[in-house]
Amino acid sequence: MTQTQTISLTINGEAVTATVPVRSNLVDFLRNDLGLTGSHVGCEHGVCGACTLEVDGAMIRGCLMLAVQADGATVTTVEGLADSPRGQALRDAFHRRNALQCGYCTPGMLASALEYVEAGRPADRAAIREHISGNYCRCTGYQAVVDAICDLIGQGAKA
Amino acid sequence: MSVAKPLPHDAAKLHVTGAARYVDDIPVPAGTLSLAFGQAEIARGRITGMDLDAVRNAPGVVAVLTADDLPFANDVSPSVHDEPLLAAGEVFYLGQPVFCVVARSHLLARKAARLGRLTYEDLPAILSIDDALAADSRFEEGPRIYIKGDVDAALAGAEHVIEGTLELGGQEHFYLEGQAALALPQEGGDMVVHSSTQHPTEIQHKVAEALGMPMNAVRVEVRRMGGGFGGKESQGNALAVACAVAARLTGQPCKMRYDRDDDMMITGKRHDFRIDYRAGFDGDGRLAGVDFTQFCRCGWAQDLSLPVADRAMLHADNAYLLPAARITSHRLKTHTQSATAYRGFGGPQGMVGIERVMDHVAHALGRDPLDIRQVNFYADQGEGSAESQTTPYHMEVEDFVLNEMLAELKETSDYRKRRAAAATWNAANPVLKKGIALTPVKFGISFTLTHLNQAGALVHVYQDGSVHMNHGGTEMGQGLFQKVAQVAAARFGVDAGKVKITATDTGKVPNTSATAASSGSDLNGMAVQAACDEIRERMARFLADQHQAQVSDVRFQDGKVLVAGAEYSFAEAAAACYVGRVSLSATGFYKTPKVQWDRIKGEGRPFFYFAYGAAVTEVVLDTLTGENQILRCDILHDAGASLNPALDIGQIEGGFVQGAGWLTTEELVWDDKGRLRTHAPSTYKIPACSDRPVVFNVALYDGENREDTIYRSKAVGEPPFMLGISAFMALSDAVAACGDVYPSLDAPATPERLLAAINRVRP
After folding, report:
1. Which runs of consecutive H residues, i.e. helices, occur in B26-115?
2. Is A67 on the interface with B (CB under 8 A)?
3. Which of A13, B89, B568, B629 has its CB 3.0 to 4.6 Å from that of B572, i.e. a possible disulfide?
């Protein structure tokens, strides 16, 4: 029950080695062991999207992945978003467009949005709506979130 | 000036960097313990045995508490002391906390909590509205009844009469951040509590009772919530009290957060309602009288159900003159979660009742429902008489603006043309049917419990000119802190960025009301203004004296203080006042004027003013599957002279989507044992981004509050929620296109209910 395993991974550009219970979720490991509390837990069974983060370039639910499964992986959380110019630009767009209210869904929403933008997809509102439909937001009605993503893609097109 | 600027949310930068701390993110001292509740497995019964040995022996468990272990009050009710923290011999709903595990981690506590073996003597559970009526299980001695005129005579004499019944489901708040609390024991038995709550004073009060301490021994701090929506007005009490009691017992800090399933099983939701109606009207659809009976399912404890049910009665007219009305309200006690505050606080349920009547009347007469709505509107401000403006609770509507607003919205939304186009579409398409509806909102602003309409603030100016602002309102995402900071900045003539927004703290501002009833900006904005003006007056007096000028000649603007030709930066002025031994700290207080209300008689002025809005929603419905999509929504909403248009529009967009969710996809299902079967997002569906309107146009009405509110703004938290009613009515309209019978659609209008309604309507 208390079996542990040592894992090594890169989190937000930093090499991390830790011994974790084999049943520990990635998001619990990030929050409780590393103090990276930007990733939030909402439903803890993979539906709400609040814990969405990037592992080896793919978006995953931090509550559905075990920490041991991330052994050897490269993980980016909301705290590490500013390390990429696109991540920084996305943050700015969410800020500027008021694409958040209570902010609890924001880190996961940013991760999903970044996946869309990084894939080079167009400022197509229907496609964006579909893409972020796995991230619940109870406050905004999503309008400003879609605006912010479109904004960022629009800027990229101009640049 | 900082007021009316569309500034972003005050914590936006923190949110996009992951630096914003919620309760569960606060770094805790080593040795902090975690709590979890063991819950009742039946809806109603006597506990005959509680074997907790396996719980006590589980890994990491430090203590297990039952009702017998609580040193003082075993109560977390916000109203009538009928809500034990831990069940005392009897259980009243499935999910009720029975014992509390204190363990070394959140997961260990939860695992151990599953190991309790409880035995019960089953007692019959009252679950539904019908069960409760049959058993006469209710709060208060009988129904509350508000009466205006002679409704029986009005119905008897009316040209036409319709009648019907409407079922309205409840709603889970689904704040993304679940309930959470952290208690930190202090010297001398004092307790500091961090809680995700809309009502820090209530937490302080209940924790003090549970610890047998005066309120001054407990300090509650709330920086932010990850959403509240009313669900954190009273539902956080249990966690905070449990943490404080466990912290006292163990001497260690204690924290607790509900896992989502626990959260949905334990906490209260929006009240579900059944509304019976009879309405009499003439050939133009003008109402003669309406008789409503509202059945409100309150759950096991009283909580806030009486004012919720009152507010449903107070919105049974919505925007319409009811020449005669009788509104009967049954507050039914059932063995289910204790229904609680939820954005709109009963108002939405009352409002759907009368909107259903409008829709039904229009159907009976073969008219556009908008015509029926408009013919029954109150008159716009300055144009009515007492006769045309009197509500069923005998308050005169003085600030009505919906006639003017509708004229604008009908144009911008192209309502008539689109309605005709939908009819053409429906004539040509047998499977996909379109529906369109325009519904208005008139929502009363003020707590109906009059004494709650008060607020306090504490403002300091430091000698470097920086400002520290504190008030009793809590931030749950709505942008209250920024709006009030804009007020403070405006009073001192500095940028909003110069004002430090600080966590709500019962040690700074005492005796606060919940941040609820949309009152946050109205009350706290005024209290902060009063505090700022007090300091500004002292500064002005000192500087005027220094320059042999009049106090009225001192100006605070653009970050400067101007007096008799001299110019100080605000910081220089503050420093000069400090050296001149001027107090730069002040409290502010505000109480809403004009309100007085007798809730038993149903007479008086419960509301300072009304907020208005209207929405046009168009949907398309697949009549084979019941699937549907909101194609377009146009909203015109009245936020008075908005303190911050960007934040207000965010409230309106989010409110509409949440309101539409309530009436469409969000379905709570209890089984015949009283077990809530939809206790996680896997089975309970809130709107996702793909569910929102394809086209979504939101505009603010250009007007100001005729009452003297903070910068003539209007409250905006709850009113837009009820704009979502237009989505429900549009679906009803699409169903109506399938045949000649009135659809009598119930809510939530899930595909299943839509198909049932289509089958009723089809020839």
Report:
1. 53-56, 106-113
2. no
3. B568
Distance from CA of A145 to the nearest CA of B (A): 9
At the topology level of CATH, where does A4-77 sit? Ubiquitin-like (UB roll) (3.10.20)
Which residue of B59, B477, B653 is in closest CB contact with A103? B477
Q: pTM value?
A: 0.98
String of b and e for B584-596 (b: at least 16 CB within 10 Å)? bebbbebebeebe
Contact A143 B224 (CB under 8 A): no
The answer to whether residue B202 is catalytic is no
Q: Give me the interface pTM, i.e. the ipTM.
A: 0.96
Cβ contact B653–A48 (<8 Å): no
Taking CB atoms and an 8 Å limit, are B16 and A146 in contact across chains?
Answer: no
Strands (E), B258-396: 272-281, 287-299, 325-333
Cβ contacts below 8 Å, chain A against chain B, sum to: 172
What three-state secondary structure class fits B187? helix
Angle at which helices A106-118 and A85-97 pack, to 10 degrees?
130
The tens place of each residue's pLDDT in chain A, 159 residues long, gives 469 999 999 999 999 999 999 999 999 999 999 999 999 999 999 999 999 999 999 999 999 999 999 999 999 999 999 888 999 999 999 999 999 999 999 999 999 999 999 999 999 999 999 999 999 999 999 999 999 999 999 876 443
Q: State whether residue A136 sits within 8 Å of chain B by CB.
A: yes
pLDDT value for A82: 84
Q: Is the CB of B16 less than 8 angstroms away from the CB of A48?
A: no
- CB B522 within 8 Å of CB B715: yes
Chain A contact present for B659, CB below 8 A:
no
Chain B residues whose beta carbon lies within 8 Å of the beta carbon of residue A96: 8
Strand-pair partners of B46: B90, B121
Minimal C-alpha gap between A124 and chain B (Å): 12
Which of A33, A64, A94, A104 best probes binding to B when mutated, by most B CB atoms within 10 angstroms?
A: A104
Does residue B354 surpass a pLDDT of 80?
yes
Best interface-test mutation with B: which of A23, A31, A90, A101 has the largest number of B CBs within 10 A? A101
pLDDT, tens digit (0-9, with 9 covering 90-100), for B711-749: 999 999 999 999 999 999 999 999 999 999 999 999 999
- What CA–CA distance (Å, rounded) separates B513 from B526? 14
CA B62 from centroid of its chain's CA atoms: 37
* Chain A, nearest residue to B11 by Cα: A103
> For the segment B98-112, what is each residue's pLDDT rounded down to a tens digit?
999 999 999 999 999
Give the domain ranges of chain A. Answer: 4-77, 84-154
CB atoms within 10 A of CB A12: 18
For residue B465, which of B535, B563, B549 has the smallest C-alpha distance?
B535
CATH superfamily of A84-154: [2Fe-2S]-binding domain (1.10.150.120)
Q: Does A109 touch chain B (CB under 8 A)?
A: no
Q: What pLDDT, in 10s, does the model give residues B572-618?
A: 999 999 999 999 999 999 999 999 999 999 999 999 999 999 999 99
